[in-house]
Write a structure and sequence with these properties.
This protein has 103 residues and is α+β, with helices and mostly antiparallel strands. The chain has a single domain (12-100), classed as Beta Polymerase, domain 2. Helix content is 46%, strand content 20%. It has a three-stranded mixed sheet. α1 (12-29) packs antiparallel against α3.
Amino acid sequence: MAVDLLATTGDLRADSVLEDVVASLDKAIGPDLRGLYVAGSYASRSAVPLSDLDLIAVLQEGSDEQLAGRVAEECAGRSPVRLDLVTLTAVRLQNASSRSCPH
């Protein structure tokens, strides 16, 4: 499956890893993948050659998080860039952000 990224990290290797992660998660959990977000140095375009690629995969509530975690581990195992991929549901993300952001 070909994947079109909505944005680039500015690094061809990292973008290739992103495409693999999106395709792999899409194949495993389909529409339960709500979004994939880049964080850290690749997000700020300050990555250096030894930087890891920090990703947050947001899943639909009730998704198989264990399956998504196994897919993440498989992607990390074949990635040419060190990959740190966290999977969480949209509700868990919302709860985490509401605790860390004062209203």
